[in-house]
Amino acid sequence: MRTYLRRPRRAVLAAAVAITALVLSGCGSGASSSTSASGGGGGGGSADDGTTVTMWTRAGTQTQTQALVDAYNAGHKNKVKLTVFPNEQYPDKIATSAGAHALADIFTSDVVFAPNYVSQGLWSDITADFDALPFKDAVLPSHIKAGSAEGKVYAVPHAADLSVMFYNKALYKQAGLDPDKGPASLAEFADQARAVAKLGGGVHGTYFGGNCGGCVEFTFWPSVWADGGQVMNDAGTASTIDSPQVQAVFKVYHDLYADGTADPASKQEDGTTWLGALQSGKVGIAPGPSSWLPLIRAKGVDVGVAPIPGVSGGTSTFVGGDVAGIAASSSHSRQAWDFLSWSLGDSAQVGVVAKSGQIIARTDLAANQYAAGDPAVLAINRVMANGHTPYALNFNATYNDPQSPWTSTLRGALFGDAGSALAGGQSAITKSLNQH
Amino acid sequence: MGAAYAVPTAVVVTLFFLIPLGLVAVMSVDHWPLLGRATPNFPANYTDMAGDDLLRRAVGFTLKYTIIITVVLFAVSFGLALLVQNPRPGVGALRTAFFLPTAVGFATASLLFLGMLSNEIGPVNPLLRHLGLIGKPIDWITGSPTTALSSTVGLVTWRFAGFNMLILLTGLQAIPTELYEAARVDGAGRVQAFRRITLPLMRPTIALVLIMMITGSLLAFDQFYIMTRGGPDDSTTSVVMVIVRQAFVKFNLGSAAAISVAALGVLIVLNVVQLGVLRRRDS
Q1: CB contact under 8 A, B248 and A8
Q2: What mean pLDDT is predicted for residues B235-261?
Q3: Chain A partners of B137 at a C-beta cutoff of 8 Å?
Q4: Count of CB pairs separated by less than 8 Å, A with B
Q5: In this predicted structure, what is the pLDDT of residue B116?
Q6: Are residues A168 and A298 in the same domain?
Q7: Between β-strands A52-58 and A79-85, what pairing exists: parallel, antiparallel or unpaired?
Q8: How far apart are CA A13 and CA A20, in angstroms?
Q9: Which domains does chain B have, with CATH numbers?
Q10: Are residues A149 and A171 in the same domain?
């Protein structure tokens, strides 16, 4: 009996060791690559010298970036090589690569995460180059603020994105609403959503990302700002979401979900099927990113664009999108700046960005020839003046991450008891904002 | 000469196991930013764990999940192994069918379940409604902590039962049939044979399977990261998810390393205890 059992036991131990080794070696494989140290930085001569510049961005703003990269590559000796990562994996990718000093020469970032990357020293100081631009004062100020620290500039706007209301003109006509006029207040928005929801047949009044911190801050906060409210202080260290303005905004959306006007799928929407829902043509009116306008139109949905209103009027928007900077570890900083400065110039902003129906990053070019011909784009450009980009060092951990205190707070406020959720959430969010 | 044969293994183990392990230990006693210089801050990374609400809930959830999944997965795997133990017509096909999910990558399997259970695009809710089992669509992933946990238990059982069945099956087949024949001659029934022969002789195999299940469950990550994203309301956030969040969302690599070291300590103790129990019963 003893000899019979001995072998299997040894096998057990051997297997356990083998499994442990496998598990542990699997964990350690991510950080082995390193930056290539080929020369090219420093020295005189033209910055357009045929260097290959690597660039990373996220899928959310891929269309804009790809158009800029293609146009640059067509007219320059330098070649920008773009790699695109899925939105939710992108912060992880930046963090792990930064740890391994393996970042691309240029990498973009969601503008709200920029303060953190600046404070972590991931981007190099481009103040001198930026100040030399003749149009520097017209470059999207809220993005420049997010990409700066202590008077130094580290990142410039790359792809602006604003939150706006999209309403389905065909459904508005069917519901007896004016297809040329969006809501002037959040109360009107709720009335119009309810009118469309009455159509039935799989049509819902509205839709939102109820399991997605980033989606909700992007689309709800403008209503708070429009009412003169704030979600946190300017320094990004104290939350004020237990204010009457925030409570009023959440009450509107809470009631729309409770009475079935909002698509029930809103509760589990974590952002992945958000665009698909708006493209389906079965949603009456919903807030969303302005960059989706061409994508929604491409599916044959005739959408109108209106600014996001406050509960009792006024309008505002979340000036989101991406900023781009040159990695501190890059050895091609001159060539990288050649691309970035070109991308902010007149020909790129009008001839590439505005031409494709996207938001430009220059306030002095707002009245370009492409915007003038499209009322929807004009509506988007006009709302930018009232916009905000919230600033906080700990933005991702506090608001966007699935385990963030904001995500559990907003779910409580939307699907549970709004009052207690916001009161409890305010202290949890303030605590998270102050963790370093 | 013998030592030379061990060199390749020794190099790999040193490079990919011992050095990273040492590095993690060093990181855990430092404030370790992404770029720049690390500064010692012992014992802050360890004492901070006590005040971390999310970590406390994650530990509670991970233990609960480990108990549930170990019981369910073991029962199903052992049941399947007993079912396909003896050669009968069709048993080969059954064994293949049960083992097949193992061939699907775990991340892929998680995405598969995410799609199948989705309210928007999944076929599960329409199917259940068609069969009259449910009145209105169930929100499997984010509806409630219970549905999220049961969906995950379903996924893990589907994905891993076949693999564990295979290990248990090899254990079952290593038991000489003469023992059962002798027992039958002595008048033992099927239940008695199972209790007195199968279970005692299966102990090493069962121990292996349990150690793998418990270790795997305590280190659970993929299924929650992909399918439930730790939700709804952080109810399915595992300890490893907290480690990843500390490292790559909060950029606090020192704190992440400290939690990893603590988790490693717990696993070592647990494995020593499990192997100890097994050894004592043997002798």
Answers
A1: no
A2: 92
A3: 264
A4: 122
A5: 92
A6: yes
A7: parallel
A8: 11
A9: 34-282 (1.10.3720.10)
A10: no
Window A:15-44, CB contacts with B under 8 Å: 15-16, 19-21, 23-25, 27-28
The alpha carbon of residue A39 is apart from the nearest alpha carbon of chain B, in Å, by: 22
**Is pLDDT at B200 greater than 50 in this prediction?**
yes
> Is A281 domain-assigned?
yes
Is A3 a domain residue? Answer: no
CB contact under 8 A, A268 and B237: no
The span from the CA of B167 to the CA of B150, in Å, is: 25
Residue B155 to residue A340: CA distance in whole angstroms: 46
- pLDDT value for B7: 94
Please check whether residue B220 is in contact with residue A85, taking contact to mean a CB–CB distance below 8 angstroms: no
Closest residue by Cα to residue A297 from A275, A319, A318, A316:
A275
A180 with A287, same domain?
yes
Q: Please check whether residue B221 is in contact with residue A406, taking contact to mean a CB–CB distance below 8 angstroms.
A: no
Residue A30 has what pLDDT? 35
* A235 in the same domain as A293: yes
Residues 6+ apart with CB under 8 A from B248: A91, A92, A95, A96
Say what the pLDDT of residue A272 is. Answer: 81
Task: Give the predicted TM-score (pTM) of the model.
Answer: 0.81
Question: For the domain that residue A193 is a member of, what is the CATH number?
Answer: 3.40.190.10
pLDDT tens by residue, B24-78 = 999 999 998 766 678 999 899 999 999 888 999 999 999 999 999 999 999 999 9
Distance, CA of B133 to CA of B145 (rounded, Å): 21
pLDDT of residue A10: 46
Domain boundary residue among A360, A384, A408? Answer: A384
To the nearest whole Å, the CA of A32 is away from the closest chain B CA by 10
Contacts of A365 (CB under 8 A, 6+ apart): A138, A346, A349, A350, A354
E-assigned strands of A334-414? none
The β-bridge partners of A55 are: A82, A106
Do residues A221 and A286 share a domain? yes
pLDDT at B122: 86
- Say yes or no: ipTM exceeds 0.85: no
Nearest to A273 among B120, B245, B248 (CB): B120
Residues A202, A303 share a domain: yes
pLDDT at A12: 43
What is residue B281's predicted lDDT score, i.e. its pLDDT? 62
Q: Which residues of chain A have pLDDT under 70?
A: 1-45, 436
pLDDT at position B34 is 67
The confidence score (pLDDT) of residue A17 equals 44
Residue B99 reports pLDDT greater than 90 = yes
In B67-133, which ranges are E strands? none
Whether residue A394 sits in one domain with residue A303: yes
The per-residue pLDDT for A436 is 67
Buried b (16+ CB within 10 A) or exposed e, A135-168: eeebbbebbbebbbbeeebbbbbbbbbbbbbbbb
To the nearest 5 percent, what fractions of chain B are helix, strand and coil?
75, 0, 25
Residue whose pair of structure tokens reads 């804009």 in the numeric block? A64
Q: Do the domain assignments include residue A265?
A: yes
Q: How confident is the model at residue B143 (pLDDT cuts 50, 70, 90)?
A: confident
Phi, psi for B148 (deg, rounded to 5): -60, -45
Question: CB-CB: which of B120, B208, B251 is closest to A95?
Answer: B251
- Nearest by Cα to A56 from A322, A310, A305, A331: A322
Which residues constitute the domain of residue A238?
A: 162-319+389-433
Whether residue A123 sits in one domain with residue A63: yes
Among partner residues A91, A96, A270, which is closest to B229 by beta-carbon distance?
A270
- Using DSSP, state whether A51 is helix, strand or coil: coil
Tell me, yes or no, whether A9 lies in a domain. Answer: no
Query: Number of structural domains, chain A?
Result: 2
